C-alpha cells in the first residue's frame, strides 16, 4: 500500500502497472505463503490488491464535482446504484459481506474514473499498461502450461485445501488450469481480455 501511494503521487502511470501486477499475482503469493502457514478460508492476503487500488479513491474525492459533467455522468449513475446496493446488502447480509461486495464492484469503477479524469497522462498510461499486460500474459501463460504438466506443491495443496474438486483431479494433466489466479474462470477472463491487447502489439515479446 505504501508503494502504491508513492507511485500514485510521483509516478501515476507506473502506479497502474504496479496495480495490475498485484492483481495478477496476489493469489499465487497466497499459495506460496499458505503452504507454510496453513490454509485460511478468508485470507487477509487477498486484501492486498484492494488496498493497492484505494489511492484511486483519492482521485474520486478530489475530482467528484466533475461527475456532473456530461461525459462522466455514467460514473455518477453507477456510484449511485452501488450506494443503494450497499445499503440493501448491509440489511440483508451484514456489513462485512456487503463491504466486500462493494469493494469488488467499486474497484473497476474507480479505475475507469481515475483514467477518465487524467487524460493528459493517458499516452504514458497506455504504454505502461501494454507492457504490463504483455508481460503478465507471458508469465501466466508459461506458468499455466507448466502447472498443467507438472503442478507444484503449492498448487496441489491449494486444490486439496480449497476442495476445488469441480476443476478436476489434483494430478498432472487432470485438472483445468488456473495459473496465478485462484480458479480457472477468473484466469480465463483475464487471459481473454489481455490477449486482445497483446494481439494489438507488434513487439517480439508480444509475438
How would you explain this protein's 3D organization?
This protein has 207 residues and is an all-alpha fold. It is 70% helix and 0% strand. Helix 7 packs across helix 9 (184-199). The protein is globular, with a radius of gyration of 19 Å. The protein starts with a helix and ends in an 8-residue tail after the last helix. The mean pLDDT is 92.
Brief write-up:
The chain is mainly alpha-helical. It has 9 helices and no strands. The two termini are 33 Å apart.
Secondary-structure map:
Blueprint: H1 2-10, H2 12-37, H3 48-53, H4 55-62, H5 73-93, H6 95-116, H7 122-149, H8 153-161, H9 184-199
Helix pairs in contact: 1-2, 2-7, 2-8, 4-6, 5-6, 7-9
Percent strand: under 5%
Gap between N and C termini, in Å? 33 Å
The average pLDDT value, as a whole number, equals 92
Question: What is the rounded Rg?
Answer: 19 Å
**Structural class given helices, strands, pairing?**
mainly alpha
User: Rough shape?
Assistant: globular
Number of helices: 9
Low-confidence stretches: none
* Topology pattern, helix = H, strand = E: HHHHHHHHH
